[in-house]
Design a protein that fits this description.
The complex is a heterodimer of chains A (129) and B (257). With 129 residues, chain A is mainly alpha-helical. Chain A contains five helices and two strands, in the order αααββαα. In chain A, 7% of the residues are buried. Chain B has a single domain, classed as 2-Layer Sandwich (Alpha-Beta Plaits). Chain B contains ten helices and ten strands. Classes of the chains: A mainly alpha (129), B alpha+beta (257).
Chain lengths: 129, 257
């Protein structure tokens, strides 16, 4: 092993380069950009706690979809026992979250999610596309 | 003469036995519940939504008020290209609507007639049987409807429906809808669609759009399971026919001729 020193130096430089983005952000004090969301309402509470909604709104929407389309149900009773009339993506959700492009879209774009809800459902106020 | 050697015979016998274990006998197929071209087993209790169309009142041939109202309410696109036409309700000549009721000396009042036709919301719907994803299903109230979220566009149902009641979206339908009604979704490219018996309006206690729009009150709608319902009253004492009744699908749309 004549070149142990060279190999170690090479490894250190390699690791330094690979982890450069992390060092760059740590030293520069910047962190990953978070999407800026416009909630779009003064109402303090969503139909379920905000944290839960953030994580599981897609599951809830799937549940609503099946209950409305396949089981013919209309109302939603939340975990707090409150009843919401008409489980509707466009009615219930977008009634409060009026700015889809600044709420739904910003987070979905950020996380690279492409839900196809709006291929068929119509964003309120944007009938003409 | 064919010479079957011992080995060959055993091989064929084994194959035959294997098929026989898994298969069904002709008796089972015919006698079992799977072939039922009969009206004796049709649902007539509980809720079964049905429609009676009085073709005697529906005689103004260029009146398309029911079609316009239905297609407006449900954002049904209008394509000029006949291969891409989407229709929920449309007019058909008598001989096309009722091929098994037609003969060469039908009266003029019948042969000159076009009748409004739509999905029959069959009691025994073939489209539901062939749908591989369960996208088309029959509700407890008899309405045969679609879960667009599950439609994969295979078009088995288009082939399965003996009434031509199903249309496929070959392209984005939004391009062919003049004024989109925000109260009802559109469809997207690649799904099948058809009349939903106004399930959306029924859930809001409204009558079907076609019935409401008819200026001649030719359409009656109600629950077949309810003796007091308007459809039962309309059916009582009148001779009514259904489209291709011999197929055993049990249509829920009746016609007074």
């Amino acid at each position: 092993m004549h070149d142990a020193m060279k190999v170690i130096i090479g490894l250190v430089i390699f690791l330094g380069l690979v982890t450069a983005p992390f060092w760059f952000n740590t030293v520069g004090g910047t962190s990953a950009r978070q999407p800026e969301l416009v909630v779009g309402t003064d109402v303090k509470e969503c139909i379920e706690p905000t944290g839960w909604m953030r994580a599981y709104h897609m599951d809830l929407l799937n549940q609503w979809r099946d209950e409305v389309v396949r089981e013919g149900k209309k109302d939603f009773v939340s975990s707090t026992g409150k009843t919401w009339e008409h489980m509707k993506l466009t009615g219930t959700c977008l009634d409060c979250h009026t700015q889809k492009d600044k709420f739904c879209d910003r987070c979905h774009d950020y996380s690279g999610v492409k839900p196809y809800c709006w291929d068929c459902h119509i964003v309120p106020g944007k009938e003409g596309k | 003469m064919m010479d079957v050697k011992r080995r060959e015979f055993l091989r064929l016998a084994g194959l035959g036995a294997t098929l026989g274990i898994g298969g069904k006998t002709l008796y089972e197929v015919v006698k079992g519940d799977e072939v039922l071209a009969s009206t004796a087993h049709e649902t007539h209790e509980g809720t079964r939504w049905a429609m009676v169309i009085d073709t005697r009142k529906c005689v103004v041939h260029d009146c398309e008020d029911c079609i316009a109202a239905c297609h407006k309410t449900h954002n049904v696109p209008t394509f000029e290209d006949p291969k891409r036409v989407i229709k929920w309700i449309w007019r058909e000549e008598f001989k096309g609507a009722f091929p098994d009721q037609n003969h060469m000396f039908m009266g003029d009042e019948v042969t000159d007639k076009t009748v409004p036709i739509l999905c029959n919301h069959c009691d025994n719907p073939p489209c539901v049987k062939v749908c591989p994803t369960g996208a088309t299903f029959k509700r407890k109230d008899g309405i045969v409807t679609m879960d667009m979220h599950r439609c994969i566009g295979c078009r088995y149902c288009v082939v399965g429906c003996p009434y031509g009641a199903r249309s496929f979206n070959w392209s984005d339908p939004r391009e062919a809808i003049k004024d989109i009604d925000p109260a009802f979704p559109t469809r997207c490219k690649g799904v099948v669609e058809k009349c939903n018996f106004c399930a959306d309006r029924l859930s809001l206690d409204k009558d079907p759009a076609c019935m409401e729009a008819c200026p001649y009150k030719a359409i009656t709608f109600g629950n077949l399971g309810d003796k007091e319902s308007p459809v039962r009253a309309a059916l009582k004492g009148k001779y009514t026919i259904r489209r291709k009744q011999g197929l055993g699908t049990g249509p829920s749309v009746f016609y007074i001729v």
